[in-house]
Design goal:
Length: 225
Amino acid sequence: MSRAALLVLLALTAFAAEEAVPTHLKVKATFTRPDKDGKPEVYAEPTVITVDGKQTTIRVGSAEEGVVFTVTPKVNKDGTLTLETVTESREAPPAPATTPATKEAEPAPRAKSNLPFFHGVLTKDKLFSIEDSAGKRQWVPLGRRIDGWTLRAYDEKREALTLSRLGQSVELVLHKAVILDAPTPQVAVSRTNTTITVKPGAKTLLGGAGGRTTSLEAEILDVTK
């Protein structure tokens, strides 16, 4: 075999070993929804570049309220395109209706008692937040008298304040407010699978809920230029 023939053979072998360039496609999705007047408006129009048979995902909105759109385009022998789509819509539940308040809500009154109310403590400063029978709250040290009761001692471990009056001794335990966690709203999720066959560049409308629609448009790109 001549040297020239050998070089040609090597070139053909190297060319055959190269992987074929995959077909690239551009997919454009248009998302619409009713505006305040009920007319459709485009609120998102993303475009992605993918290759034949590869799944790509488009996200619009947030994890709590939005759309996760997945499309897998495939090029058919006749030049048409098959688009396999999955639409996952997430919608937060509506906020509960509230009645407008005519005046600022007042805190619920605490139970009647002839004892002061122990609200808080500054351990380092040895001061105690005490509310008297008239509802007045103030920071006072040990030895101070409130409603005839004298603050005698404080047990830090048990968070208990000892009071005395006319030979009677009582303990007030630190009052702790309880904060309830707000319930996490349940997000409504709907999922739709659709497979369509279209011509390159043709726009196809997909159905939706609540007046929302999604349309698709795909075309084959020439990446050799």
